[in-house]
Design brief:
heterodimer, A: about 160 residues, alpha+beta, 1 helix, B: about 140 residues, mainly alpha, about 85% helix
């Protein structure tokens, strides 16, 4: 028949497998660290190739990547703002700058979306800061800054 | 004459009802989003509904920027479809929650029962099998 040691090993493996599958079942669908992500992609939908210098009113083509890992369906709003060198933006304070465009999307948990962005800057600027902030719209109709943002430095020339 | 007027009203009424402005549709999208959040709390899987609602939102945004009325009508149909999906999603979610809870209880319970049965009847069964396996054996004198 089966050796005692072999039987012990089989039982141990069975116990470990049972505990592992039970823990997987227990943790299924549970999000331990909810987060949202925003990324800025270049005109070729890749990281890189970002425009550095553009002319006044020239079309700036970019892409925004939004990822939802909040563990819930989320209504996102992305605010595109035009700031400069002195504009402050961080994970707690959104930028106090002119909103030049807004984008909206609804994503379920685990879903992501790449949004095409077409913008123009109407005046010449040195060290212009194109900021994209990620905001969430909650069920009580409040719009909250998620603390996630991306930015792009630009020089906007006359010709 | 009255019949003609009634027919005319019946023809105009759906058009008037569907002639919703963008803001009204955005408000409806937000309301459906709220319903989906509640449905999700009851275990509903909102993935497909979220994708559809996002499609409706993009159509409304497109209509806002380009004044595309066809997009508004399409968006309205999608919103209505998502809204009608919600009770089914909640029901499916509830069933999923019940199955999950049952599995969570049944799984360790089954293991426990199997362990107790093995402890009580295991040795007896093992020796019975051992004997059955060797019943044809003959002892040879050396």
């Amino acid at each position: 028949m089966i050796d005692e040691e072999v039987a012990a090993v089989i039982i141990a493996i069975t116990v470990v497998a049972a505990v592992f599958s039970y823990s997987q079942l227990l943790m299924e669908g549970r999000v331990t660290e909810p987060f949202s992500a925003i990324g800025l992609l270049g005109p070729e939908m890749k990281i890189g190739g970002y425009p550095r210098t553009v002319r006044v009113n020239e079309t700036i083509d970019l892409y925004l990547f939004i990822d939802n890992h909040e563990g819930r369906i989320t209504y996102y709003m992305i605010k595109a703002k035009l700031g400069n060198k002195s504009t402050t933006v961080n994970s707690t304070i959104p930028a106090k700058a002119q909103v030049i465009a807004t984008y909206e999307t609804i994503l379920a948990h685990g879903q992501n979306k790449t949004i095409p962005v077409t913008l123009r800057v109407g005046r010449p600027m040195t060290n212009a800061r194109l900021i994209f902030e990620l905001w969430s719209l909650y069920e009580n109709n409040t719009l909250k800054y998620t603390g996630r943002w991306v930015h792009l430095w630009l020089n906007v020339t006359k010709t | 004459m009255r019949t003609n007027i009634a027919l005319l009203i019946l023809l105009i009424l759906p058009l008037a009802l569907t002639a919703l402005p963008e803001t009204e549709l955005k408000h409806r999208i937000y309301e459906v989003y709220r319903l989906l959040v509640e449905a999700e709390k009851e275990g509903a899987d909102t993935s497909s509904a979220a994708s559809m609602l996002d499609r409706a939102l993009q159509l409304v945004l497109k209509a806002e920027s380009r004044g595309d009325r066809a997009s508004l009508l399409e968006a309205e149909n999608i919103i209505s479809e998502v809204e009608s999906m919600i009770p089914r999603l909640i029901e499916e979610g509830r069933v999923r929650v019940i199955i999950r809870t049952t599995t969570l209880i049944a799984f360790p319970l089954t293991l426990l029962v199997a362990g107790v049965i093995t402890y009580i009847y295991g040795p007896k069964l093992l020796w019975r099998l051992w004997l059955r396996y060797r019943r044809e054996w003959k002892v040879r004198k050396r």
